[in-house]
Amino acid sequence: MNRRPHSTALAAISAAVCLAAGAGCASTQVPNEQIAVAKASVQRAEQAGASSLAPVEFQTAQDKLARALKAVADSKLQPATDLAEQANVDAELAEAKANEQRSEKAAREFDASLAALRQEAAQGTLQQRQSQQQINEMNKQAAPNTPAAPNTQGAPTPAAETDSAN
Length: 166
Description:
Elements: H1 3-47, H2 50-53, H3 55-73, H4 77-142, H5 158-165
């Protein structure tokens, strides 16, 4: 009967050691996973042009990622996890700001193009009006030089009056 409590205690100690070893392995995975996510976010931010469009946020993300990598190398797993998560957030912010900058630039360019088109349309309309006015003026000037239109209302014309008098 004495054997049974001893083997139960040994089993409990073995289970505790296995759990502790498992927890140690799991906590090493967390920083690696978070670092991989942060690296991907920094890369996406760079591809979005964050290094020039959101340089402060991008540099902050890169710095925190480097510090997270150093913390992993120094076996400081919790600070590594925290820094990797912060690097991820900073990289996402840098990417969003870069995308916003590009969108605002595209909107300004679109507005400028639209304004130019409106101006061209207004000038075209003005030119069309001026051309029509010139045509009308030319028609008015040419009108006295054109022969008189025939009288179609039944009133006698001066030539007809002279013929009837003879």
